[in-house]
């Protein structure tokens, strides 16, 4: 069964900007432009019935479009040994509001548990479990002032993720437009 998640795709210019930062960290596993996205809600593995209920529930999403830009860098977890490097969000307010609306839609789906994790909007750049802490800190310092152009967020996507011998591959399952402002 595929794993599902709801997210925001990035435009090619922002993908290119982030991809140019995918160097200089020995032993990192870089995500790359084909995987850059902002996850609003990780759902996990579901069967066909629940998949259809998720699509139906998200058809009811009513949220305004907004402008989004990326700013700054960080790591997860915030304390201890880093496992991933991410780009942050310049103004997380509209993203958090959209996440709440997505969650409200998904509460209507039977057999779907709420996501227990605290929401921290970000775009993962690399997996760094095999990197030294010193190398990660140097990378963060070199890219601390990163900032992308702002872009319109006009839809959210339901993605599926399938593990392959090269890592995960993402596929868009459905798109849900946001209300023009």
Explain how this protein is built.
This protein is an alpha+beta fold and 181 residues long. Helix content is 24%, strand content 35%. It contains four helices and ten strands. It has helices at residues 12-19, 48-58, 93-106, 133-142, and strands at residues 3-9, 29-30, 37-45, 66-68, 70-76, 84-89, 123-127, 151-153, 155-164, 167-177. The strands form three sheets. The chain has a four-stranded antiparallel sheet with strand order 3-1-9-10, covered by helices on one side. The protein starts with a strand and ends with a strand. The mean pLDDT is 95.
Which spans of ≥5 residues are poorly predicted at pLDDT below 50? none
- How much of the sequence is in beta strands? 25-35%
Taking all Cα atoms into account, the compactness measure Rg is: 17 Å
Instruction: Report strand order across the widest sheet.
Output: 3-1-9-10
Instruction: Determine the structural class based on helices, strands and strand pairing.
Output: alpha+beta
Strands, total number: 10
Figure out the total of helices: 4
* Mean pLDDT figure: 95
Task: Summarize the biggest pleated sheet.
Answer: 4 strands, antiparallel
Helix content: 10-25%
Globular, elongated, flat, extended or rod-shaped: what is the shape? Answer: globular
Spell out the helices and strands N to C.
EHEEHEEEHEHEEE
Distance between the termini: 37 Å
